Amino acid sequence: MGRRGKDINVDEEGLWALVAADITPLKGRKKPAPPPEPAMPAQVRTRTGTAMPKPPAPVPASAAKGRDVDRRTEQKLTRGQMDIEAVIDLHGHGQAAAYEKLQRFLQEAYRRGYRCVLVITGKGKDGSGVLRKRLPEWIDEAPLKDIVLKAVPARQADGGHGAWYLMLRRRRDIG
Fold first, then answer.
1. For 95-112, how does the pLDDT look when each residue is reduced to its tens digit (9 = 90+)?
2. pTM of this prediction exceeds 0.70
3. Fewest C-beta atoms under 10 Å: which of 35, 60, 66, 156?
4. Is residue 28 part of a domain?
5. 89 vs 22: CA distance, rounded Å
6. Measured at the alpha carbon of residue 153, what is the angle toward residues 15 and 115, in degrees to the nearest 5?
7. Whole-angstrom distance, CA of residue 141 vs CA of residue 158
8. Which H or E run contains 118?
9. Chain centre to alpha carbon of residue 132
10. What is the DSSP string of 47-116?
11. Residue 153 belongs to a domain with what CATH number?
């Protein structure tokens, strides 16, 4: 362990932000302040040097839900740069069956320690799919709100408007 006050690099700041986001301070103590956000470059480029594709269209605040996710992780999730560890396709299911299947899937993914999953809801007729609209509601209610940390619409390559990336909370009892 280094000494207090040591200068830390950008990677360490991001790691600290991930760690500090989930802590509960001891009684009478304050939560540590998050590190300052690094300035974003004028033009973001991929590792190959090509310009980043246009980000997906903004979604209503109720759709892009999230709690306690640091900026860098949120960007990776939104850009589809996180490893998808499991996929579920809810096409063709009624609301009740889709909800039950989703609940079992997310509980199992959480139990296994997965962090990022893809949920395919389909777009529905004229882009107004019932499952697509209901997913943000379902994951914002118990018991799923205790499992899902963040939900964002998927990139076109992973299903576009008919799919969602879900970031799951970390399991603290996994060694």
1. 999 999 999 999 999 999
2. no
3. 60
4. no
5. 30
6. 35
7. 25
8. strand 116-120
9. 16
10. TTSPBPPPPPPP--TTTS-BSS--HHHHHHHHTT-SPP-EEEE-TT--HHHHHHHHHHHHHHHHHTT--E
11. 3.30.1370.110
